[in-house]
Amino acid sequence: MNGPSKLLETEDNWTTKMGAWFAGERVVFRGQDLHVDLKDMSWMELYVYSITGRRFTENQLKVLNAIWTSTSYPEPRLWNNRVTALAGTARSTPTLALSAGMALSEATIYGHRPNVHAIDFLFRAREAIGQGAELLDLIKSELRERRVIGGYGRPLFRSDERIPHMVKLIKEMGMDKGYFTSLAFDIEKILLEGRWRFQMNITGLDAALAADMGFSVREYHLFVTPAFIAGMPPCFQDTNEKTEGTFFPLRCDRIQYEGLKQRNWK
Amino acid sequence: MSSDKEVIRTRIWEETPEQDNPFAALACYCSGYDVYGEILGNASWFEYLYLLFKQQRPTPEQVSLLETLAVALANPGPRDHSVRAAMNAGVGGSTHAASLIAALAIGAGQNGGAHEVAICMEYWQKCGQDLDEWKNILLNQPEINIDIWCPMEHPPGFDPHGSSCSQPVRQTLTKLAQLSTGVALPWLETNRIELEAVSKTPLAFTGVAAAALIDVGFDPKQGEMLFLLLRLPGAAAHALEQEELGWRNYPFFGDGLTLENDPGPKTIRQDEKTAGAK
Q1: Rounded to whole angstroms, how far apart are CA atoms B213 and B20?
Q2: Domain range spanning residue A34?
Q3: Distance of CA A205 to the CA centre of its chain
Q4: Helix, strand, coil: what percent of chain A each, to 5?
Q5: Rounded Cα–Cα distance for residues B257 and A13 (Å)
Q6: Looking at the partner chain, which of A20, A117, A221 has a beta carbon nearest the beta carbon of B257?
Q7: What is the Cβ-side half-sphere exposure of residue A70, based on CA atoms within 13 angstroms?
Q8: Which residues share a beta bridge with A26?
């Protein structure tokens, strides 16, 4: 048995390089003074610094910012946004609304599970290609084992309206030729030419861009966590300002019961 | 209802509308039973809980096992990560929902939390009562694809920091094994010491809960949900208590943090400190 030796070591003893608050005096943030060294950072710059401990170029920050802005839709029918809209119509609070919306964003058919899978596939592909594998074989093997490739295909529609705008931006920023970005487009080419007909969605392109900027899988997961959030406040405000309870109300017979027939408990 | 309206499909719930309002229910049925006309007053909370998850009535033995498990799980105590999370909401005066959201988010994890229970239940489904299978899976946990969840860092159902199986865990296992009409709990009680020797860690509440949830008849997803749900009472009670006591009476670990890379204070000129200075 290991026993509690690790707990005894850390009891009232947390050693860190991440940061600390010196009350009434200053804040150290990954070895830098927040109010002095980092005072000119934009919120995005600080956020990616908080995750990676690294500073990014102006062009990289523009692309990182675009990853967030391009995926923040004030569309109250999308599932995570719908929760914030329901919070508004149910007269809950803004923080609870956005927390719940963000919690949902770690989803399987959209959001952060595909984000994580997309960047992971790119890293695994690079490793396999480095060992001499063919990209087509990798794609076939991935589809055979997992049925999907993170970043390709889309649940509601085939094409992704965000891609051309992001491509335009990364060309302007000179960030369209990175190893992973090129790889992502090579994968799409194979998937479109083959019988699969999968187009790349923004998840695939964003993951490639982040990989080219040096994000690890876990860093990227943290980076995308608030990616949808700017679309949520309008969903909350809209339903919160209108008559309570009126956001897509459901009458009783909108429940389609498919269970056992009515019966007696006793 | 017109046929082009989208509907919520369910095997759990049926409603008939009031005559004067299609948005108000006249009667609600859970798996065919009239909830407010018949279940109310006749069914226990745990009979109803089982009905909701399984769409069938439990046996008295299943109810007894589920209710006893619920008592065992209701309060992990104020040292537990999920309860600590809830109390942090309490001392700061956060919303009561935030207390429970915090308890759920932290209690969802893989170190003493609900996802560990779900993984352990998957192991039960794979290994059953085959000791060799268990030894193999505890020593060679299946590799998982990179996901939002990280790989387990210890054998699921066991305490990575334990010296020996704690008395509350043993007492819970013994009581639940007595009540169970299934096979997992009695088998776990019989083989606990051998499993602990293999995993080099003592059995934890998560391991007992997983076996109990298997014996009641739940699958890993249902078990994960129920483990989250059944641990909320203690989180709520402790959060309310700490809200009353306030932050001054709650540990801040004031001397507990050591910063390894402190750059030290930076000087700001006096004139820069003063608002409105020219």
Answers
A1: 43
A2: 25-55
A3: 12
A4: 55, 5, 40
A5: 6
A6: A20
A7: 21
A8: A22
- Residues 6 or more apart whose CB falls under 8 angstroms from that of A116 comprise A150, A217, A220, A221, B146, B147, B148
B136-165 pLDDT, tens digit each? 999 999 988 999 999 999 999 999 999 999
What average pLDDT does the segment A100-129 reach? Answer: 96
Nearest to A125 by CA among A196, A60, A225, A204: A204
Residue A262 at interface with chain B, using a CB cutoff of 8 Å: yes
Q: Span A179-200, mean pLDDT?
A: 92
Phi-psi region of B219 (alpha: psi -120 to 50; beta: other; left: phi over 0): beta
What does the pLDDT read at residue A2? 85
CATH number at residue A117: 1.10.230.10
Who among A20, A99, A252 is closest to B22 (CB)? A252
d(CA B116, CA B174): 21
pLDDT tens-place string over residues A140-185:
999 999 988 989 986 656 678 899 999 999 999 999 999 999 999 9
| Shared-domain flag, residues A96 and A133 | no
pLDDT of residue B2: 46
Kindly state the tokens that stand for B253.
């670990």
A218 and A118 in a single domain? The answer is yes
Quick check: A131 contacting B, CB < 8 Å? no
Q: How far apart are CA A105 and CA A92, in angstroms?
A: 19
For CA atoms A192, A159, A181, A223, give the dihedral sign: negative
Is A138 domain-assigned? yes
Per-residue model confidence (pLDDT) at position A156: 57
Split into its structural domains, chain A has a count of 3
Collapsing DSSP to helix, strand or coil, A203 comes out as helix
Among the partner-chain residues A1, A103, A264, the one whose CB lies closest to the CB of B162 is A1
Nearest chain A residue to B99 by CA distance is: A96
Residue A150: inside a domain = yes
Task: Classify residue A49: in a domain, yes or no.
Answer: yes
> Touching check for A217 and chain B: CB below 8 Å?
yes
Whether A239 and A160 map to the same domain: the answer is no
C-alpha torsion sign, points A58, A64, A67, A68: negative
pLDDT digits (tens, 9 = 90+) for B117-143: 999 999 999 999 999 999 999 999 998
Question: Using alpha carbons only, how large is chain A's radius of gyration in Å?
Answer: 23
Whether the Cβ atoms of residue B239 and residue B89 lie closer than 8 Å to each other? yes
pLDDT digits (tens, 9 = 90+) for A234-243: 999 999 999 9
Cβ contacts (< 8 Å) between B11 and chain A: which residues?
257-260
Q: What pLDDT is recorded for position B278?
A: 47
pLDDT at residue number A157: 63
Shortest Cα distance from A50 to chain B (angstroms)?
Answer: 15
Here the tokens at position A219 are: 């860093």
Which parts of chain B register pLDDT below 70?
Answer: 1-3, 276-278
pLDDT single digits (tens) A13-46: 999 999 999 999 999 999 999 999 999 999 999 9
Q: Verify that A155 and A205 share a domain, yes or no.
A: yes
Q: What is the pLDDT of residue A155?
A: 60
